[in-house]
Amino acid sequence: MGEQIEKKKEITIWHEFDGPSDTSIEVLEEICQLYSERHNCRIIPEVMGIAELGARLCSVSATGEGAQMALVPSDMTSYRKLGAYSPVTEDVHRGIISEASLATMQFEDQQYGVPILLGNHLVLYYNKEIYGEAPQSWEDIEAQAEELLKNDITPFGADLSQAYVFIPFLTAFGGWPLKDGRPHLLTEEVEQAFEFVVEQTAAGRIISLDGATELLEQFIAGKIGAIISGEWIFNHLSRNMEDRLAVGRLPSIQGNPSVSMSSSIGLVFPNHSLTSEASDDIKSFVRFMLSEECQLLWANRVQRIPANQLILEQLELISTPNKREVLSLLKECRSMPVSPIMITIWVSLAAALEVLLAEGPEKALIELKQSLDKSITELEATQNRINEEMETV
């Protein structure tokens, strides 16, 4: 008999690069394949929607089941108890990532994640054949709206069902969803932002469409003049629009800047995987993800923003004007808070936005309060259960 071939170890990574226009999945799958070919360990990417990813991570502590790694937006660092995350030791990322970037995946002064990509912010994309230059304000959009609508072109598009997309409207009225560690949504600023969104959609100046599909399709087809969308869509739009595409700052509202959140996307380690027998393989894969080879794949293949500080600095020097604008706009954003309370904020805002365009601001505010009360109660109950379980261990 010949020598028995040793079976490769297997490690699963959950992620949410699931939209048809999110080309990031191409690079993640290639990186996993490259690593698997070069090492005695097979990395298996498993894709799902963002809601499912959050739900799965939040069940790890209760079930004891979960992937060894998950690639997540940085606010999911705060799920560290629900997901039973391993703390991250400095040897994994030493000298590669800036302190500011590392801070995006810290919770209560402890590192629970390793940033792989930066950005995750919203920008203005506009069609240069429709707008000669970026509309700087909503007054600019309103001034051109009548002529555009006559030509069957919607002035502006956004996915207004997404809580993350609503944030720039809120910040323009001076709001922010978190204050003193608690939700800060039952405010005059939220009400003003709701009223503004309804007013603009009723006038036909904004159309709300699914952000992963129809919004992008109509924008590429020249049926919408400008859209709010994430930097992660830049590669898809650039491929499909070429010289028609331009990038700008989110339009101001009544003279006030619209400020997007930003975050990182990074690896967390559910079910205490960094203390498991797979620890050495996991750390090896993380270092591979942060290597020049892989970080350049993200930057060059799908135009994402690398977390490796040296590669990021190189990218800023050689990028196209559009890409430089995307990088520049990141500096104007506010970091997404890393707090368990953000779960309640996203859930409650999403519920309110679903009501907003159908039934108006008043009903949306009622839904917001009811959803907020419910989600806070559920979160506190879950946290109490986990704390009790940890005390008995």
List its salient traits:
393 residues, alpha/beta, 7-stranded mixed β-sheet, 14 helices, 46% helix, globular
Q: Would you give an account of this structure?
A:
The protein has 393 residues and is α/β, with parallel strands linked by helices. Helices cover 46% and strands 18% of the residues. It is built from 14 helices and 16 strands. The chain has helices spanning 24-38, 50-63, 99-103, 138-150, 163-172, 188-202, 214-220, 234-241, 279-289, 292-301, 309-318, 321-330, 341-359, 361-392; strands at 9-15, 41-47, 69-73, 106-107, 110-111, 114-119, 122-127, 154-158, 178-179, 182-183, 206-208, 224-230, 245-248, 261-268, 305-306, 334-335. The strands form four sheets. Strands 1, 2, 3, 6, 14, 15 and 16 form a seven-stranded mixed sheet that branches. Helix 1 runs antiparallel to helix 10. The protein is globular and about 70 Å long. The N and C termini lie far apart (48 Å). The mean pLDDT is 92.
In short:
Residues 365-392 form a coiled coil. The chain has 393 residues and is an alpha/beta fold.
